[in-house]
Amino acid sequence: MVNDVFEDTKENMQKCIDALKRDFTTLRTGKVTTSIVDNIKVDYYGTMTTLSQVGSVIATDATTISITPWEKTMLSPIEKAIQEANIGVNPNNDGILIKLFFPPMTTDQRQGVVKQAKGMVENAKVSVRNVRKDGNDKIKKLEKDKEISEDESKKAQEQIQKITDEYIVKIDETFKVKEADILKV
Fold first, then answer.
1. What is the domain extent for residue 159?
2. Spatial separation of the C-alpha atoms in residues 90 and 80, rounded to whole Å
3. Same structural domain, 65 and 153
4. Which is more confident, 175 or 26?
5. Are 15 and 79 part of one and the same domain?
């Protein structure tokens, strides 16, 4: 019973870290990635569709993303969607494909991205703490229902705190790696 609570807690805390890593992919580092445009939706014949479903999206080099639409008629809707997404660059349409040229990041921009990452880290830590609270509540319910003793309850809550501490450290390590990636010139 108590072990089930521990397993659930670990699983849910791991989901918090996975979500943080997904969030980190939307941040710009020194090298552009196609994930920058993942959230851009294009009006595809009246249906809002992700950019990757209306064309080929590739990073051609460290500062350029090329978007080749499956249909030529989609060039201007894609261009419009990119402008509205406000990702910091203007699309260049040459009649065949759209190129996004990202200028090298300044030190101030890098610091701003690190600040965004810190906000994401705080959200992940709050999520982990919420999972801890849920785990502790389950343990207290087991104690209240007389399925475990008061001593077992205290030990279980201490164990949940240890698990929480482990995951907070993992979050901090994930941030350090991302921060180094962002600040690398």
1. 2-26+106-183
2. 10
3. no
4. 175
5. no
- Counted domains in the chain: 2
Confidence of residue 170 (pLDDT cuts 50, 70, 90): very high
Beta bridge partners of 100: 65, 91
Partner residues linked to 66 by β-bridges? 58, 99
CATH code, domain with 73: 3.30.1360.40
- CA triplet 160, 17, 114: central angle to 5 degrees? 125
Strands in the chain per DSSP E: 41-44, 47-50, 55-61, 64-69, 91-93, 98-101
Cβ contacts of 171 within 8 Å, gap of 6 or more: 16, 17, 20, 121, 124, 125, 128
The separation between the first and the last C-alpha atoms of the chain, rounded to the nearest angstrom, is 50
In the prediction, which pLDDT does 173 show? 95
Q: What is the pLDDT of residue 114?
A: 92
Cβ atoms of residues 183 and 114 within 8 Å: yes
> For residue range 112-148, what is the model confidence (pLDDT) as tens digits?
889 999 999 999 999 999 999 999 999 999 999 999 9
HSE value, Cβ hemisphere, 13 Å, CA-based, for 59: 14
C-alpha dist (Å) from residue 47 to 50, 52, 54, 60, 128: 10, 14, 11, 28, 36
Average pLDDT, the chain: 91
Threshold 0.85, pTM exceeds: no
